[in-house]
């Protein structure tokens, strides 16, 4: 079974964190935290792709990793703010249709471990008779609202309020998605019609999106280093 790992590394600067993917995080560029994990752990028969609109991005990665990664040059449209993860996985899969499973990883998931990536793909491979995709989630408890509406309880009736520990919801970590070729070609999305929700501890769920996230990551890695 052929597996491709797509790692988007946009060359355009983030609005919230300038040059986010290569900003310094405890001694090395942010992107290298995940890439180091991938190089150290992922099986040799998986094909690893850096997906970027700029060849200079790949040049920076080659300086550290040599030829460990293949390069997929995306169209500039897919580097703009209107492009999302569904667009990215679709343009990648349609360009490389020879794979059975596509794994999408994001370098902003700086605490994601290689072991979790391998286990997630193994779970999907062993469940293809029932499932067509997998995503990482954390289990959250509490009462949730979105667009002015309660999501997991009914606040309008006396018995509609469960115990908070029974009000459970899944939250995507946005760090890893895996999907079969048939599913991505059918849906043009990174989550198929019958996904597996693979629960991971919160320690693997960090995603760097804001300066506050970056400062939290710096504190986390600094405390780990001090405890070693």
Polypeptide structure, described:
It is built from six helices and eleven strands. It has helices spanning 30-41, 55-65, 85-95, 114-125, 181-187, 211-227; strands spanning 3-8, 24-25, 28-29, 47-52, 70-73, 101-105, 133-141, 145-146, 149-150, 168-180, 195-199. The strands form three sheets. Strands 5-4-1-6-10-7-11 form a seven-stranded mixed β-sheet, sandwiched between helices. Helix 1 crosses helix 4 (114-125). The longest helix has 17 residues, at 211-227. The mean pLDDT is 93.
Question: Which helices and strands, and how do they pair?
Answer:
Layout: E1 3-8, E2 24-25, E3 28-29, H1 30-41, E4 47-52, H2 55-65, E5 70-73, H3 85-95, E6 101-105, H4 114-125, E7 133-141, E8 145-146, E9 149-150, E10 168-180, H5 181-187, E11 195-199, H6 211-227
Parallel strand pairs: 1-4, 1-6, 4-5, 7-11
Antiparallel strand pairs: 2-3, 6-10, 7-10, 8-9
Helix pairs in contact: 1-4
Brief summary:
The protein is α/β, with parallel strands linked by helices and 228 residues long. The protein is built from six helices and eleven strands.
Radius of gyration, rounded? 19 Å
The helicity comes to: 25-40%
Q: Which strands sit side by side, in order, in the main sheet? A: 5-4-1-6-10-7-11
Give me the number of helical elements: 6
Order of helices and strands: EEEHEHEHEHEEEEHEH
Compute the average pLDDT.
93
What is the count of distinct domains? 1
Main traits of this protein?
7-stranded mixed sheet, two-stranded antiparallel ribbon, globular, Spore Coat Polysaccharide Biosynthesis Protein SpsA, Chain A, 228 residues, alpha/beta, 31% helix
